[in-house]
Amino acid sequence: MALHSLTLEQYFNRSHTAVPGGGPPFTTLLSHVGLVGKLLSRDLRLAGLLDVLGTSGDTNVQDEAVKKLDQIANETCVQVFQRSDVVCALASEEMEKPVIVSKPGRQAPYMVLFDPLDGSSNTDVNMPLGSIFSIVTHQPDDRPPGDRDLLQKGTDQLAAGYLLFGPSTMFVVATGKGVHGFTLDPGLGEYLLSHENMTIPTRGRIYAANEGNYQKWPEGTKRYFDHLKMDDKGTGRPYSGRYSGCLVADVHRILLNGGIYLYPAEAKKPEGKLRLLYEANPLALIVEQAGGLASTGTKRILDVQPERLHQRVPLLIGSRDDVREAEAFFAKS
Ligand code: AHM
Ligand code: MG
User: Fold this and answer.
1) Which ligand has an atom closest to residue 123 CA?
2) How many angstroms does the Cα of residue 16 sit away from the middle of ligand 1?
3) Is it true that domain 8-195 has CATH number 3.30.540.10?
4) Which of 8, 126, 252, 315 is surrounded by the fewest CB atoms within 10 Å?
5) What is the ipTM of this complex?
């Protein structure tokens, strides 16, 4: 059995993994994201025994029913990052406005945009869940950040990460120097390096999408899905369908095994479902740094200029050849 003995903090404190614009404050931020993961992992493990399943009765800024666990996860993130000395602003899929964490006389370097609980329809059925984080920098001047400072393109992210709450809890981080996965040892309370330099195969044999939406898709999108199901041993078709209802879990599988996740535009919903700043951008950074691609169908996700905090975007993400092929079909809609 391999000995996993390098912790997240030790790993990012080593000089050859140091992040440009990072240093000790960046490692502190990663360990605060890790703390969110430990707290949520503990809460999720006991969720079926406590009164935390189901909806809270509220709707969020996206007009979606808020689950009790959505609220708990959001509050956990806000509390941890508000107390962090290195964070100056927070924006969440669950909050209409950002939280500005002002510290008199000192400006913290990082802003964090997050989806506190991804795949929240899975909460009540004990299926995988995730949390997604995008980290951008705020120029160290005396001015506290405003809403517009959070509207940075995906290419401007310093780092991105996700927590996956599956049979084990994992923390996967992309910093500009590769993608690395850490697995939480709950006994030790430490994330240990388990997947160094993750790379995605150039083509896979699985697709992840909610095909219940088939009739709502443009013709080119329908033709792509029909194509995936046609027999062709040379390219591994028909592909297998694997859809969990949790973007993080589906993208994690694809990162390891190859393939493509799609939440495409619909004729009446051209902007798709997923959020650019909290979901698409951070996952696009991770998948691109692992050698894959992320696209709206016509454009690289990381090049989309955000106009609004809660902006949605169609998403095709995964193995390079699969995303390119899907784009070619979508172009002929
Ligand atoms: P959420 O962040 O509110 O949970 O929404 C995002 C989720 C993704 O995790 C998942 O891939 C998708 O929405 C599922 O949507 P649908 O139920 O329409 O298939
Ligand atoms: Mg989500």
Assistant:
1) 1
2) 37
3) yes
4) 126
5) 0.97
